[in-house]
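Researcher: Good morning. I'm working through a list of sequences from a screen, and I'd like to move beyond sequence-only analysis. For each chain I'm collecting a predicted structure so we can compare shapes side by side. This is the next one on the list. No need for commentary yet; just the structure.
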Amino acid sequence: MAGSMHYIRKFGNVSFCDMPFCDADNIALCEIFYMPFEKVVSESFSGEPRAFDEVCRALFSYNGNRHRAPGLMLKKSISVKMMEMAKQKRYAEMKMVACTETFKTNPAVQFAAATFILPDGTLVVAFRGTDDSLIGWKEDTDLYIRRSIPSHALAVNYLENVAKHFDGDIIIIGHSKGGNVALYSGLYCSEQTRSRIKALYNNDGPGFFDNSPYRTKQYKELLSRYNHFIPSSSFVGVLLAFDKDYTVVKSKRILGPTQHDLSTWQITDCDLKTLPRPSKLARINELAFSGIMYRINREQGQNFDRVATAVIEGSGQVNLLGVSKHLPSVVKNTVETWKSLDEDTRKEFRETFSGSKEILKDSVKLVVTEGNKEAREEALEDLALQGVKLEALKI
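Model: Good morning. Structure tokens for this chain:
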């Protein structure tokens, strides 16, 4: 089964001038942008853009001329793919500019963006998904309790700066949280900037706090240029309120969390290999997690935020790799942090996720018995009794 590496090698000698940017290029660039390009590319918009192959060699040298995994859950193969792209004419002709990273706590912010300039002047704005940092994972959880996260505003500001400093069409890409902020930037940038967007790619990004972004005139304007991909058993892309204007992609993996890895997505020539509909597992994921999250009230959400912040700060680590290397001390610190919280906070946190097992069971029942009206009504009644807002499930 062919993936992005096969595509890179097969079409690597074909210039963007001869074969325009396509779905597979979007996947390849989103994959390698988990590499820390900000270490070797200036964040300035007014600096001289650097040749992509030169940037890749500089980053490889920065990493000690060794292929290093960007994080515990990010593979070393990403570095290998980056260097393979650097050797190919198609990508060596690109340039990079304005690679920026923002990393803060309280509120949690993990944001990174860069611009790739194609030979014809087309600008490809890439937004990074969640990296290895605990702060990045904390910002992910904030999507569940806030209408907007800091990365949203940063993405809009970055896109506006790109439009201000460079001419040409704009393509926006992002994977995971990067897909979420890519869509947000396209929706909430200025009309002038939006008119220059040639394509926008959201690759298995989670949804928003509610459905309001999809009811805007901006969303309708972007729809013909919007490419939303989710794998067949999507886990991340069906979280929260997500749009149904998606294309289902075939992955070589079976389970949703493992299908989130872009390297598992199948490619035929320049296009992603697609399926007519998501699997039942994706629907179960959607119903179960929506059911769990949409029964949490405002006070419980604030309590969850306090606990998550305290546990992350108390862990003594900044990323998952550190957690893995110092697991005994992390467990000890986490337990001590939990015990240091007042009893009311701990009790409310436990109650926040009480009933999750039953919600999952009822979600499975609802999906498996879709053709059985009596069983369906019974499952819906069970979910309602558990406090689930059925309208939020979009069923």
